[in-house]
Amino acid sequence: EDQVTQSPEALRLQEGESSSLNCSYTVSGLRGLFWYRQDPGKGPEFLFTLYSAGEEKEKERLKATLTKKESFLHITAPKPEDSATYLCAVPQGGSEKLVFGKGTKLTVNP
Amino acid sequence: IAGITQAPTSQILAAGRRMTLRCTQDMRHNAMYWYRQDLGLGLRLIHYSNTAGTTGKGEVPDGYSVSRANTDDFPLTLASAVPSQTSVYFCASSEGDRLNSPLHFGNGTRLTVT
């Protein structure tokens, strides 16, 4: 069965302490990988789409990268406002289903 | 501001009661979706609609029904609520085929079934 696994489940950083979140997937025939940010009490907000291995996209302090088996969301010099749960998702091969990971809850302390 | 509006924001419902969660979008997106989000399980697709007049079943459709009479509205109905349907429900839309277009989510309905 196609799966999406995110790690770590939770991550605490000090302001300015860079790190990376991981999203590994086992879907066959990847047709795109999506990253979302979710704040408490809100719906997920779209960040990036990556379509092919080697692709990179950036937005402010965030950079998403993609390999054939996983994606990383790099956070450079994070600020407290970057605290949120970050979700990744991939379309399941051969179906209408978008498979979401369980997310990484990021907390950035001032 | 363009986006997705969900109502109600939260609801406490007695088991066995019927409930319709409302979802309206003003982006003229073709595709719409209903997800439920549960702690430890993540987001799971309940039903979807690729275009007005069509609907399809997702991963966890049992106990839920949807309709898509027009482009903007996509209500989700619980015919007879059960406690296991306690969850946060998110409506989403996408401009085209979900596999190529990002989803835009509403802010959810928190439903408690007692």
Structural class of chain B: mainly beta
What share of the residues of chain A lie within helices? under 10%
Which residue ranges of chain B are poorly predicted, with pLDDT under 50 across at least 5 consecutive positions?
A: none
List the uncertain runs of chain A: none
Shape of chain A: globular
Arithmetic mean pLDDT of chain A: 92
Largest sheet of chain A: 6 strands, mixed
Largest sheet of chain B at a glance? 7 strands, mixed
Distance between the termini of chain A: 41 Å
What fraction strand of chain B?
Answer: over 45%
State the distance separating the first and last CA atoms of chain B.
35 Å
Rg of chain B is: 13 Å
Number of helices of chain A: 0
Chain pair sharing the greatest interface: A-B, 21 and 24 residues
Order of helices and strands of chain B: EEEEEEEEEEE
Shape summary of chain B = globular
Offer a few descriptive terms:
heterodimer; A: 110 residues; mainly beta; 6-stranded mixed beta sheet; 5-stranded antiparallel beta sheet; 55% strand; globular; B: 114 residues; 7-stranded mixed beta sheet; 4-stranded antiparallel beta sheet; 0% helix
What would a concise description of this structure say?
Chain A is mainly β and 110 residues long.
Structure, described:
The complex is a heterodimer of chains A (110) and B (114). Chain A is mostly beta strands. Chain A has no helices and 11 strands. In chain A, the strands form 2 sheets. In chain A, strands 2, 4, 5, 9, 10 and 11 form a 6-stranded mixed beta sheet that branches. A 5-stranded antiparallel beta sheet of chain A has the order 1-3-8-7-6, with no helix packed on it. In chain A, a hairpin with a 3-residue loop joins strand 7 and strand 8. The model of chain A has no long low-confidence stretch (mean pLDDT 92). Chain B is mainly beta and 114 residues long. Chain B is built from no helices and 11 strands. Helices cover 0% and strands 47% of the residues of chain B. The chains are: A mainly beta (110), B mainly beta (114). Chain A binds chain B through residues 31-32, 34, 36, 41-46, 49, 87, 89, 91, 96-98, 100-103, and chain B through 4, 40-45, 48, 50, 56, 58-59, 90, 92, 98-100, 102-108.
